[in-house]
Amino acid sequence: MTSSAGGAFSPSPAQRGLLTNQVIAVTSADQGYGRPIGTALAHAGASVILVGTAPENLAAIASGIEQQGGQVIPLAADVSVPLDCISALGRILDIYGELHGVVHLADKRAYSTFQDLSENEWMDLFGANVKSTVALTQVLRRRHPQTWLTIVGPHRDEAGLQVQPQRGAIRSLVEHAGQEDMRLNLLLPSRASSGDDRLDQPLTDAVLALAMPSLGHLGGNVLEVPLPPLPRAGQARSDQVRAEQIRSGQVDRQP
Question: What is d(CA 134, CA 50) in angstroms, rounded to the nearest whole number?
Answer without folding.
Answer: 19
